[in-house]
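Target protein
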Amino acid sequence: MPFLTEPEPERGASLAVMPGIRRIVANNPGPMTYFGTNTYLLDTADGLVVLDPGPADDHQHVGAILRHSGGQIAMILVSHTHHDHVGAVPALQQATGAPTVGFRNSAIADFDPDVKLDHGGSVAGMLALHTPGHASDHLCFALPAANGERVLFSADHVMSWSTSIVSPPGGDMADYFASLKLLLGREDDLYLPGHGPPLREPQALVREMLTHRMIREQAIAKKLKDGALDTYAIMDALYSQLNARLRKAAERNVLAHLLKMEAEGKAIRDGELWRAT
């Protein structure tokens, strides 16, 4: 797939994306986060909005958000409740008193948004799209930008630098397929993801991601015809060239595929082993 790269961004800097949109990259680089979580500062008719404050353990990042916003934050949006996006919410809310906004059914006990959104809800001039798969409470936000472009904050559902992990139980492969198809039905010009650089002409990558997952599922089904296998054996066969740091995530993706196939009557399990139907 034609993934993008970018030079490592300056930490603590307010990086202009387009009129009314800035990005601050948290200092939490890693194999699952690229250079770090993207926090977006959005100038809206309702005031300054912060989307995804980042991880709890990057205190300098919260300081940078406060510095570049002047502390005048109208609301704190959360795309989903994975720790690298929601962890800094308590510190930022304590410093600003800003209300939090997220999906109506939070996936974690210690985050309950003040403003609860559902699919099709609106906030600060943006349309909320419920896109589960990577996380059950995942939201994308569609924004008609000041320059006329149709922008989608795609968070971790579609990223420009990598595919997303789908790790049960919070991750669901059937939901992931459906959410990719939802985005294919839209005509967005630009995706601003939760990690990595902006993505133009995003439909091509979304289509390739969906095709990739379909091919992977076919490969799993073919492998199961060899006999009963556990998730590690399937992963080891299908991801043999993968970086060692990503093999656990790949095994979680395999499990997500198998659970989808089980629900569709294409696979059955016997303890830790899986078989073709």
